[in-house]
Amino acid sequence: TYNALKDPSAVDEDVQHLRALHWINDVLVLRAYGWGDLTPPPYDQESDVFSREVMRRLYELNRSM
Fold first, then answer.
1. Beta-carbon neighbour count of residue 40 at 10 Å?
2. Cα(60)–Cα(46) distance, rounded to whole angstroms?
3. Residue among 31, 34, 27, 41 at smallest CA distance from 64
């Protein structure tokens, strides 16, 4: 199932629904961190820019503790 989530050619309705649920969860986690200015990419697309920014912020958060 999780392999299908990352596979852009997987267009099954259940897979698309699960992608949407994961994306919503990602948005809520970002908001919980106070990072509402970030928008996660679609679940079947990788974004190095997004990943690097999240990692940078997590690093800064850990450093400040």
1. 18
2. 23
3. 34
For the chain, 65 residues long, give each residue's pLDDT as a single digit of tens: 889 998 999 999 999 999 999 999 999 999 999 999 999 998 878 899 999 999 999 999 999 98
Three-state secondary structure call for residue 11? coil
DSSP designation for 30: H
Alpha-carbon gap, residue 65 to 54, rounded angstroms: 17
CA–chain centroid gap for 11, Å, is: 19
pTM of the model: 0.84
